[in-house]
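REQUEST FORM: STRUCTURE PREDICTION
Request ID: SP-0412
Submitted by: Lab K.M.
Chain count: 1
Length (residues): 208
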Amino acid sequence: LKNASGGDIDLDAIDFCGGVNPSDVTISDAAGLAKWIADDPLEVKKKVGNFTLTYAEVTAHQMSLFQNVIGEISGTVTWENLPQAATTENFFEKIPVRGGVRLINLPALGNANGLKGYTEIGGDLYIKDCPTLPLCWGPGNCISNVVTVAGSLTLDNAGWNTNENLQGVALTALKTVGGDFTIRHDPDQLWNLQNMHLETDGCHLVLP
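STATUS: Completed
RESULT:
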């Protein structure tokens, strides 16, 4: 496409509206990763739809470089099978995520404070097989500021190896869940859900 002066139009610089959706991004290898990280910020950052990262060799440093290329994620972020992913910081607080968050099989993930600025999750909040992820650091930390989850909320084998009992303080601000609220946890480490203020009408609490 050309503009009135004959120059090229950067489609990534267009604010998506009127039913035009940004493209989904899936990164599963080094070549795909190289397209979406940079040492210095782009003058005009890109907007993406769903963002899926499954490249097992990605390092924590490389994950901090997505913010130089991506300006916003309108869909769901999925991190899955990433053995070196140690923190959510330098990603979630740097790149606004408008949809859901899915953290799956991240054995080294030990810091959820990249999400502490989120009061609303625009899709599912799904955390599964993240055994070293502490969720109970108290009000103001981790996911404790989330008030609304538009989709379902699942905590499945999350944080069981942190010497912490899972308890309501992990979600002390939570009031609304649009779908099911599911907790799968070692019964010996599920403490209680007091300090929660869930007000949702129709949400199913599932404790399988």
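NOTES: The CA atoms of residues 119 and 145 lie 5 Å apart.
Reviewed by: T.R.
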